[in-house]
Design a protein that fits this description.
By secondary structure, the protein is α/β, with parallel strands linked by helices. 34% of the residues lie in helices and 23% in strands. The strands form 3 sheets. A 5-stranded mixed β-sheet has the order 3-2-1-4-7, with helices on both faces. Helix 1 crosses helix 2. Zinc ion binds next to loops.
Length: 287
């Protein structure tokens, strides 16, 4: 089976040719202005070019909330789709191929699940990068929920008082733990401002830098224990630029160890790296 995989992000769109589960070719374009769904679909298919005639289907992963009607934005700052944005329908009509579409973190969760020991039935994937996202596997199947919202775990609230999140709630994990939140805390602490990469390098010798990173890791640890309490997960897979940064996973696991044994859950590093969403887009067609 050959799949055209498309991963739509806020700044870039990756396209891949996936044969028997392996990414054999890859292209990338800057995300164009999103207004007309037909123009947007044409841009994607033009970029796929000669791959298209060799593909059996098209798998899409995208930022935003995916429903049968199309894509809409939970956080319009990432990518403001005119809602609903019926991209799957437009691609299907133009390519005459079956099209399947998932939220990007759900797609990455599904890919990561396929990379685990088959004994695992219940898993969550958490990505800590610009935001905090995720996906949930229950009884060996991706759980999307009736409205497609399942796995938006960055918007689980873990604090009654602060900070305010872009989604409209108070105390979301994303508002405490994301790369954006880390950068905000860092900017209040260091002048001139430093990047998050520099912050991680500084943490060994600077208690303020360490405290900022620990605050994030502790919020993720609470999220992990909440998910364990709610879903009795076998394992949690952690990814994203912050999630995979040196020492971050260790900090999360240390924070989990301080909590009652019943809520502890093993957290391991993601394998898919930067192409997990793209591969997940293609892996939708694999059971
Ligand atoms: Zn939120």
């Amino acid at each position: 089976m050959r799949t055209l995989a498309i991963d739509i992000g806020g700044t870039k769109i990756a396209l891949g040719l996936v044969e028997q589960g392996t990414l054999v070719d890859r292209r990338q374009i800057a995300t164009p202005t999103v207004n007309d769904v037909n123009l947007f679909a044409d841009t994607l298919l033009e970029c796929a070019g000669e791959w298209l005639s060799r593909c059996d289907n098209i798998g899409v992963s995208t930022t935003g909330l995916v429903t049968e009607q199309g894509i809409s934005a939970i956080n319009p700052d990432t990518l403001a789709f005119p809602a609903p944005f019926p991209l799957a329908q437009a691609l299907e009509k133009k390519s005459l191929l079956p099209v399947s579409m998932l939220n990007d973190a759900q797609a990455a969760a599904w890919f990561e699940y396929t990379q685990l020991d088959s004994q695992v039935e219940n898993m969550a994937f958490i990505t800590v990068s610009t935001g905090v996202g995720g996906g949930i596997i229950i009884n060996g199947r991706l759980h999307q929920g009736q409205s497609g919202l399942a796995g938006h775990i960055g918007h689980m609230s873990v604090s009654l008082s602060e900070p305010k999140c872009g989604c409209g709630q108070i105390g979301c994990v994303e508002a405490i733990a994301s790369g954006t939140a880390i950068q905000k805390a860092s900017n209040q602490c260091f002048s001139p401002p430093i990047s998050n990469i520099e912050l991680f390098e500084k943490a060994d010798s600077d208690t303020d830098a360490e405290a900022i990173i620990c605050q994030s890791a502790q919020a993720i640890a609470i999220l992990c224990c909440n998910l364990k309490a709610c879903l009795d997960l076998d394992v949690i897979v952690l990814g994203g630029g912050i999630g995979l940064a040196t020492g971050y996973l260790t900090r999360v696991n240390q924070a989990i160890k301080t909590r009652p044994a019943a809520f502890q859950v093993p957290v391991v590093a993601a394998k898919g790296d930067y192409d997990a969403c793209l591969l997940g887009a293609a892996f939708q067609f694999r059971e």
